[in-house]
Every structure is written in C-alpha cells, then in structure tokens.
C-alpha cells in the first residue's frame, strides 16, 4: 500500500503534506517545554471542529456500565500534568533510500509539551471492563480516506497498555485548553509510544473482544517488504537531537560557526528506558565523546545534554549526536540500517553540516 | 540570485523549508481569528530567543531624541488590538512553471490573528524625525546568511508608510504575549502589506537618510528576468480561499463530497481595498456565480463568504474561487499569468479537486 521511490527529488504530495504538518524547528530544542506552534503536528485528515461546550465522550463496548462524560465531568476527576515527549513514528523517513512516500520528516517530528488531564485507568475501572474485553479502541472525530477506505481515525491499545500509569485523557497543553490542531477538546496521551497512538479529538472509547484490525493499526507496522506481516510500531526508539549551532544559510540551512569554542546543546529521549548516555561527534561519526547530561523534568520528558565543542580549524564539519538508553538500545549510524516499508522508528544519528570560519561568514 | 527549476519534482531544500515553515491548513479558514499554531510562519533564519524581562527597543538614527523603550514602557503607551490578515509574498510560488526555489507555498501561507500593540507613528514623532530622514529601517534579532551575505533580517519603509495609521509595534497575538515563533517579545505589524515587511523580534528602529538597499529589500521585488531591476513587493493582491469541503484522502488530499447540497465557505482579502465580490466556480473556471459576502471584523481582517453548491451528478469536479477588490483588482485565472522570478504576489484562483459520490466514499 505504501509507495516507495528511489528518487532524490520529492513529489508534490510530500510537499503539501509538509506544509500542513509542521515539524519543530530544531532551535526549539532550547525550550524544556515546547511552545504551542513550535511542536510538531501530524493531522491525518482535517483538523475537525468539536465544540467544547457540548462535548461528550462515550465509554462503552464490553463494559458493565457505559459512561458519557462531559468536559466538566472529566475536569472534575483527579488531574495530572506532565511533560511528555511526542514524536511521529515516521520521523527520519525522508532520509531513507528508497523512500516511502508520506509525510517527509527529516529530524523534526518531535516536541515535548506539558499535557494535563485525567488518568484513563480509573475511568475504565469505573466502567467495568468485562472478562471478554481484550483491547480498548479509541476513535477520533477526524475523518477521511486512507488506504482506499473511508474511516474515522482510530487505534487500539491492549488492556495492559491502556491501564498503564501515565496514560491520560488530556484537555490542556502547556496550561491552556487544547488548541484545535492538538485535539481540542480532548485527546489521548500515551507516554513512551510514538504519536500515532495518542488519538486526538477523541469521540469514543470502546472495550472490544477481538484485536482491532483497522487501517491505522495495520499501517503502523515494521515491514521489510509488502508481503511481510511485520510487527507493530509501539515505543519510541532512543533519539538525541542538537539545536544546530551558529547561524543558518536561508536555503541550504548549512550552519556558519565562528572558530573556537561553541556550546552545543540538545535533548534526548527513549520510550524503552531512561537516556543514560549521549555522545557527540565533530567529524561525521568517526570519533565520539560523551556529552554532559542534565536532569529530567519528569519520567516522560526529554533529557537535556550539552557538549563544549572546540572547532580548532576553519573548514567543513559534520556534527553528529547519538543516545543510548537504560535498556541498552542505541541509535543506528546510517538511516538505512533501520529501513522499513513505512519508514517508521528511524533513529539514525542526526547530521548537521557546519562551516567553521575565522568569523561567522568566512 | 534565485534558482529556477522546470522540474515537477521538488528539491530537499524546499521540503526542509516546508517542514520549518508551516502553512495554515485550509480548514483553518473556519476561524475568523486564526489560532496560534495554525497561522502560517516564515522564519528566514532561526527563531531567536529574546528575553522579554531585559528587552529594550532602540529608536535612533536621524532623530532629535533617540529613545530606548522597555516592554513595560511600550505596554504603558496607547494600545490598539486589531485582526490583520498576514500573507507571505511567496504564497502560490510552488504552482509556477518554471518554479523559483524557495519556500514552496501553494495556497496556505496566510492567517488572520488579532495583534495588539502600540502605534508606531507617535513613537517616531516623539523621537522627532530630522528633515533628512527618508526611510525608517527595522532590524530583527534573527540572523543568518542569504544571498551570500551575513545579515540581521531587516527591511525599511518610506516615512509615509511608517507613519500610516494601523502600523503598530505588537506585543500580543490573540490575547497572549507573542509566541517565540511570531516575534517575541515585539514585532512590527504593517497591515495591507505582505508579511516580509512586518519584521519580527524587533531589535531597533532607525531613521535613515538614503533608501535602504539591503538583501531583503532587494530580494522582494517583482522581476521578469535576472537583469530586470523590477518593482518592490508591497501590498497584498486580492485573494479568496475556500475551506475544502467534504473529507480528504490522506496522501492526495483529493476531497470526497456527498452528492447534493454542500455549503462551501471561505475568506477573502486584499491590501489594495475592500473585497467587494467573490465568485465560485464548480467547473474549473468555465462558469462563475457570485458568493454571499459576510461582514468584516475590521479594516485589515479577511472577509467571510459562502456559496451553496449543488453537486447534482457524481463525478470529478474542480472547485474554484476568486475575489475582486474595491480598487478593481481581480485574481489571475492561471498562476503563470503572474509569473515573476521570485514567485511573489501570485494570486491565481484556488483550485480544489473533488470527487462527488452518492456517498462520501463513492
């Protein structure tokens, strides 16, 4: 179903998706909490308008006591607020050869907002999951055609994942009501996982008796070929990014940095454990040195890191960074090491082209 | 200086610019005031961090009394809040043949926020423009390389334009402090003009004795060829857009609409006068019918319009819309009628591909 291209050029479809689905400009890494409007977005269909005043969430299916919850009822429940790194499963796709045709992410499909909402587990317990329930299905108000099928955007979680601590129904982002484009008035937030499972504009929650086999569930799988059933895309692979140092060229985005010392800073995360090591390379990955790690704002936040880089000689450099997590997962050196048909979970080391001059413009 | 391509495919540079510089998803036309995070953005270099607590604006050059104004001092001055349509001068560029290589806008480089700030004119009067001042230069904190030259982003206005009513120094967008990506803590807002002149992250204002000839002033000109000195890009040409009806296909963005009546809605604007007519075509521009016009929220806002479209037969349609303003300016039918080397001011009629079925998925 996924079209693949060997072209180094991009199709108009990819460009139009990029214009609708912004990444976080990487200078946004300076903020521990990504400001609204700098956080990445992937809207599969259109941003729907859902009136918060008349909003009702239905919780049903294989439960003893179906619930209908207004926004006020949801806000009256116990609340948690937490920074959560959100990353699109397709981040890095456009660096693959051949390239799957979809949103042409390079490195920027990420952000870390503070999401506030109410835990999902107690709501499911209150509704009372029946014994034959095996998954929980989350359906959004966003509607369109994908894979030739008309659908509402929907994804399921196993009971274990749905009941996990940290999974919330969020109604605030960065201390404000959810903006329309981030799922107003209510969205699911599933920490540690890639973003596709954090269903926006939540319409209903339904306990179901069979594993869900909808289009989006089938689409997000690691497949080596078209016939390969593959395995599901779930948690975020370890990933470190740097805020590109110096100043950019408008078109090429090549960085111009003054000779001497430059503090390179960034953030790193993993859905499989805590980031325990970040390494920096000034020479395209030939040599690596440990970066200094900072403190986490919370269990689902990204970890700040910094590295004092000394550019002794003018010339061209390729700066790289890579993370290792507490589960021992590391980043690939080349994107194509993690090639798969959908272009998911690609987490090769970031590469930033830099020109070092005696002055910034040399 | 501008590279031109005849390729129907796009370069990686264009894609990376699109990922950093989002358009407004066109369903955002439903909002009279575009929410933060749905408004288009063009950041020439990086989003700089400027601390609002220590911020100072300097007003100098050919003035009797140079001023240094803190944010509190600016907020203590008379304030105005007004909806202003902001549109990138490059909107529509990617529909040109051949195509200038830059931000690959199609239709979406637009938004209408409520900007609050203090009028510029009284500040210039207080500083006291000297008789030999001919222009006012606005310099931002954003810095980079463009056209081979290291620069701060800067643009000038003639005294007449700088002193015009409606030109403000804005510190709020939609009732909140400016977000980083829109120019925090202070930006210029010049209504009626294309966006390039509304300098963000304002560092200084300077009265100058010669017309400014910086890179950005030279770049934004209507040129027919490389040798053509051209004419400056100034006010926004008339432009109407519709929120695409029905539901989209994820990749192609083709719209699926059910047979029968559909209310098509959108907004229209012009920097040369009031929009006085909006016309809708269901057949790619062969026949046109007048849309119903709504009320303006203010002199610099966009004008809502609507059209009751009846799709009698299933099949493929191309929906178009065009505006005419009170100065008699109209939109081109084909993009290439307004071709110029920078791809500026392109305002051909919007074209939306629609599949009409007996049901949405037919």
Instruction: Indicate how many domains the architecture of chain A comprises.
Output: 2
DSSP strand count of chain A: 24
Q: Helical amount among residues of chain A, as a percent range?
A: under 10%
Strand order of the largest sheet of chain A: 16-17-24-23-19-20
Classified by CATH, the class of the largest domain in chain A is Alpha Beta
Query: Largest sheet of chain A, described in full?
Result: 6 strands, mixed
Which architecture of the largest domain in chain A does the CATH hierarchy give at level 2?
Alpha-Beta Complex
Topology of this protein?
Two copies of one chain form a homodimer.
Chain A: E1 4-5, H1 12-20, E2 56-61, E3 67-70, H2 71-75, E4 80-87, E5 99-100, E6 110-119, H3 120-127, E7 135-146, E8 149-158, H4 159-162, E9 168-173, E10 176-177, E11 187-189, E12 202-208, H5 215-219, E13 221-222, E14 231-232, E15 239-242, E16 247-248, E17 255-258, E18 260-269, E19 275-281, E20 289-290, E21 292-293, E22 303-311, E23 315-325, E24 350-357
Parallel strand pairs in A: 2-12, 17-24
Antiparallel strand pairs in A: 1-5, 2-3, 4-6, 6-9, 7-8, 7-12, 9-10, 9-11, 13-14, 15-18, 16-17, 18-22, 19-20, 19-23, 21-22, 23-24
Overview of the structural elements:
The structure is a homodimer of 362-residue chains. With 362 residues, chain A is mostly beta strands. The first copy, chain A, folds into two domains: 229 residues, Oxidoreductase, molybdopterin-binding domain (Sulfite Oxidase, Chain A, domain 2, Alpha-Beta Complex), CATH 3.90.420.10; 119 residues, Immunoglobulin-like, CATH 2.60.40. Chain A is 9% helix and 37% strand. Chain A is built from five helices and 24 strands. In chain A, the strands form six sheets. A six-stranded mixed β-sheet of chain A has the order 16-17-24-23-19-20, with no helix packed on it. Chain A has a five-stranded mixed β-sheet with strand order 3-2-12-7-8. In chain A, strands 4, 6, 9, 10 and 11 form a five-stranded antiparallel β-sheet that branches. In chain A, a hairpin with a 7-residue loop joins strand 19 and strand 20. The model of chain A has no long low-confidence stretch (mean pLDDT 96). At the A-B interface, helix 1, strand 7 and strand 16 of A face helix 1, strand 7 and strand 16 of B.
């Amino acid at each position: 179903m996924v079209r693949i291209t060997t072209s180094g050029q991009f199709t108009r479809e990819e460009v139009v998706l990029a214009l609708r689905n912004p990444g976080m400009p990487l200078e946004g890494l300076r903020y521990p909490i990504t400001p609204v409007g700098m956080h990445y977005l992937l809207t599969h269909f259109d941003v729907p308008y859902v009136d918060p005043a008349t909003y009702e969430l239905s919780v049903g299916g294989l439960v003893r006591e179906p619930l209908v919850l207004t926004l006020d009822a949801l806000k009256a429940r116990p609340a948690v607020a937490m920074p959560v790194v959100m990353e699109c499963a397709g981040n890095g796709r456009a660096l693959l050869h051949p390239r799957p045709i979809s949103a042409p992410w390079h490195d920027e499909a990420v952000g870390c907002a503070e999401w506030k909402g109410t835990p999902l587990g107690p709501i499911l317990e209150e509704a009372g999951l029946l014994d034959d329930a095996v998954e929980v299905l989350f359906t959004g108000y966003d509607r369109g055609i994908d894979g030739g099928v008309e659908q509402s955007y929907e994804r399921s979680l196993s009971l274990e994942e749905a009941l996990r601590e940290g999974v919330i129904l969020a109604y605030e982002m960065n201390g404000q009501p959810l903006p329309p484009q981030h799922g107003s008035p209510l969205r699911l937030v599933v920490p540690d996982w890639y973003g596709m499972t954090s269903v926006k504009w939540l319409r209903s929650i339904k306990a179901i008796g069979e594993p869900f086999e909808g289009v989006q569930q089938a689409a997000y799988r690691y497949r080596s070929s078209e016939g390969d059933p593959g395995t599901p895309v779930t948690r975020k692979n370890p990933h470190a990014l740097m805020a590109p140092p110096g100043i950019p060229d408008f078109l090429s985005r090549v960085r111009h940095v003054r000779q001497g010392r430059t503090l390179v800073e960034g953030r790193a995360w993993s859905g499989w454990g805590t980031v325990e090591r970040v390494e920096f390379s000034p020479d395209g990955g030939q040599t690596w040195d440990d970066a200094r790690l900072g403190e986490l704002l919370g269990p689902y936040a990204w970890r700040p890191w910094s590295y004092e880089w000394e550019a002794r000689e003018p010339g061209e450099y390729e700066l790289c960074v890579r993370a290792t997590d507490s589960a021992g997962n590391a980043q690939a050196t080349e994107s194509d090491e993690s090639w798969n048909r959908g272009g998911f979970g690609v987490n090769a080391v970031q590469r930033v082209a830099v020109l070092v001059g005696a002055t910034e413009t040399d």
